[in-house]
Amino acid sequence: MNILLTPARIGPVEIKNRIVMPPMTTRTADDEGFVTDDCLAYYLARVRGGTGLITVEMASPEKVGRHRRREIGIYDDCFIPGLRRLTDAIHRGGAKVSIQLGHAGGHTRADICGETPIAPSAIAHPVYEITFETIVPQEMTKARIDETIAAHVAAAQRARTAGFDCVEIHAAHGYLISQFHAPFENRRRDEYGGSLENRARFGLEVLRAVKAAVPDMGVVYRLSVEDFFPSGLPYAEGRQIAIWAAAAGADALHLTAGHYRSRPSAQVVLPPMNFPEATFLDYAAEVRKRVGVPIIAVGRLGDPATAERAVSQGKADFIALGRSLIAEPDWVEKVRRGEPIRRCLACNTCINEMRGGARIGCVVNGAAGRETVFVAPQMPRGERIAVIGAGPAGLTYASLVAEGNHVTVFDKDAQPGGAFQLAAKAPMFQEVETDERSFARYLANLVAACQTKGVKFRFSTEVKSAAELLGFDLIVTASGATYRFGLGLLTLWLIKTGMARARNCPAVYIVGNPQLVLLPRPARHGGAVASPGAAGSARDRHWRRGARRQKQGGDCRRIPGGVAGRRREG
Description:
Blueprint: E1 8-10, E2 13-15, E3 19-21, H1 37-48, E4 53-59, H2 80-92, E5 96-101, H3 110-113, E6 118-119, E7 125-129, E8 131-135, E9 138-139, H4 142-161, E10 166-171, H5 176-181, H6 196-213, E11 218-224, H7 235-247, E12 252-256, H8 281-288, E13 295-298, H9 304-312, E14 318-320, H10 323-327, H11 331-337, H12 349-355, E15 384-388, H13 392-401, E16 406-410, H14 420-425, E17 428-429, E18 432-433, H15 436-452, E19 456-458, E20 474-477, H16 488-496, E21 509-510, E22 517-520, E23 528-531, H17 538-550, E24 558-559, E25 562-563
Helix pairs in contact: 1-2, 4-6, 6-7, 13-15
């Protein structure tokens, strides 16, 4: 039996399998932070797909720590009924449920949380939440530290009242506890600053207090063990904090890496497609040898074989799938049935667009974050269906309607993929550097999903008239779009010849759909951008501005199995 499908424990809680959905902000709560029908539908889609432990997104233990608009709330008793509705629904679906207690610290603004932000030290924090602004938070006094610890305890007790099985304490990615860990952000000269023992003190005090208050719950400590920027937390220190956290009462360690100040980019927090698979797994494996509690590994582990090896080889006890479960809610059930999964591209559109103000979404799963819109679809039955176009849209549709129908996919090319194969050859896709292997794996799984359901393919066949489709009951056109302003030939030439990637030559960035407009490429790359008609997104401009304002230097520390990003010259 696949070890991923076997049960395991986190403290007092037994999880039916080894797959954990980690916390990722969705913006499906309402403006005040209350649970909505959309919120329920999003999580329940992953429950129905077989996920063992659902971790509800980051929720601040006090109002001053809210880091996003429409962030789910747990800082007041008024949120308990909605949270109880959510946990009851998840339990009815057969999964266990946790919630992340995450405090933004200095990584928020007064217009978001309604109060003056607090942090270990009063230093500048670049904050991007729909718009960009640098803020200077208020330094926490000892009394304020005690108040924040008490707020974590109260939030954990609310979580227990609301029916959660576990709570996760957020000590990662540049939020409050992580800010105490990093020397650059913690300039204190009291017992909470200076030495590693002092910098780790606040988070460990939160952990001990929470575990003492809710001993019947599983308590997970999510920790960035490497920050990837000068004067951030280095791995040797992160590993030691992990060991201390296990000794302090954590029932499991959820080990990640990265920080909002990471170099060369904060994208390392969610490693994009040009990073190696299982990006942080070696960190997890090394810590696991030194502690006696379960390890949750995260970071590009969406390939079922890779995830299975990670657990069977003793590198981790649980596998956290964030973007993979956004792309494929049925990941666990498809692994159980031996079916191809819908692969995540690791293009980071989900998180980047959310930071820009959008609800969670996905390039390869149009239902993500909009599950209520796709309730009870009316599927055709017993029909002969012709699908014209073997790109992602045509292949996806064919795989969805194949059961109970006779589906044939036509494409004028000799292989599937359509223009999507060209996107893989461009330097950038959705703001991240491309890796052709990611696109190839995604397409291969789409084709395999069609083939296992009996879909027939007719390649090298251009449909020119309706007469060629006589006998079909339903004709679906998924043949793509045309380029604007007659620029198609130039764009295709740049991509197919490799000139799009050449030094000091125009390059094509694929952003959105194939209706491209060539624009001046940002100065950091030089060349041209392909965009759906806008001169670069506001989000991208804010990211670049934020990177300039950090002024942290250009350190690029090694990640096990790869490098923390590749910098392209020109």
